[in-house]
Amino acid sequence: MTMHPSSTDNKPLRIVIVGAGVAGCIVARTLAQCAGVEVTCLERVSRDDHSEAGTGLNIGPNAIKLLRAHDPALAGAVASASLPWKSWRTSLTDGTELFTLPLSDVADNDGVRIRWSELYRVLREGAGDAVRYGVTVSDIGREADGRCMLSYTAGGETVTLRGIDLLIGADGRYSDTRRALSGAPAMRQVGVAIFRLLVPDTSGGLIDDYEQWFNGPNRLLAFRVPPGHIYMAGTFPLRAGDEIGDADKSADALRRYYLPADGAAGDQCAWLVDTLCANVGAIHWARLQETEAGYRDGDAPLLYLGDAAHGMVPTLGQGATQAIEDGCVAAALIAGRLAAGSRDVGAWLQAFDAARSERIRFVMDVSLEASDTLFAGADPVAGSLKKVQPPFRAKLSRLYRDVGHASAAEAGQ
Ligand SMILES: Cc1cc2nc3c(=O)[nH]c(=O)nc-3n(C[C@H](O)[C@H](O)[C@H](O)COP(=O)(O)OP(=O)(O)OC[C@H]3O[C@@H](n4cnc5c(N)ncnc54)[C@H](O)[C@@H]3O)c2cc1C
């Protein structure tokens, strides 16, 4: 199937975005302000539904740098709903510090700490009327001329959108769009269990900026998010492919995994473990996994963004961070091309791929490399100290600083 030559007629280009999450909202907001394009963003849940509301996110300095350059107003709104992420401290669960890394050593600006529900609220407000909420998307496919089509149902009414010049799948890790049009990407379990909990801050100031604590390869992390909550997450090794057993999801197991076997826990870990055990029924459990990266599918007028394009291990907090990078680059590129009179969707997609593929490979690889301390038998002291040695610092600096410009992909248009 070849791509429809959309550059030959003067009708507005039809762009449909599936998913008003992190990447989808950023793109929808920018494109809704562009001439020559008709944008529809379709979201499964209602506007105020935040399915992962019990979660906090640390968003890397790299995403903030790019968002400030692409959309300063949106970056300001994110900043208002968050706290700055300025440092990364790693200790043992008995309180022995291994390192403190000020992010200013490896980044040009701070990252942020934010509740998931707040990030979605800010981004969805920013996308405004471009998003249609509460829809069920079905029948996603290609038409004879190569363009895409889909149907959606909302409020009992079914609408079929035909002749879609560009379909953007921004519908998350289990993307129906990618599965329907390109097949489910290969997924790999890496052999680590992860859990998350968000609780009101009763720590009395024990927890603030981003910190991690190791007991062998078992790791806790925590930070404070506004308003007045502590986000905590823990990992422990699991045989790759195994489910997390009920015995692992108990207060007894959490104490065994995170309290030092010989000697007392530090004050911070004692509070974290007590709080986890008191809220064990509210913990969200998952496993670390990666999906095969892919932004495009041959010459189809299709673009996958965020988790739909690249599910990565969360060790460096780069999931939403990269969804923001993707969203900024895609939005700036398409807006720039439209403003320059280009309707050549195939050329836009090639430029996007050229701007992003190597970067995302690097981010996925460095996220996996940073997970070395989480595997069975890992030495957390040696592995953590390696994170502040020049080779890994250089990678962090590349990660946090070398974001390029959102509009770099427009070069050569
Ligand atoms: C518990 C947890 C903690 C995390 N912590 C961090 C962190 O600290 N830092 C970080 O950077 N990342 C973190 N991540 C990862 C991050 O949240 C994701 O990488 C990020 O949300 C991906 O953004 P996205 O835009 O690709 O997709 P999402 O934000 O997942 O958005 C996808 C949207 O598509 C919608 N959708 C899905 N299917 C359909 C459909 N069929 N039709 C219509 N709409 C659909 C969904 O409802 C959703 O609104 C965390 C993830 C989890 C689960």
TrEMBL record:
SUPFAM superfamilies: FAD/NAD(P)-binding domain
Oxidoreductase in keyword set: yes
Keyword Zinc-finger part of the UniProt annotation: no
Keywords of this entry: Monooxygenase, Oxidoreductase
Top-level taxon in the UniProt lineage: Bacteria
PANTHER family per the UniProt record, alphabetical: MONOOXYGENASE, PUTATIVE (AFU_ORTHOLOGUE AFUA_6G14510)-RELATED
Name of the featured protein: Salicylate hydroxylase
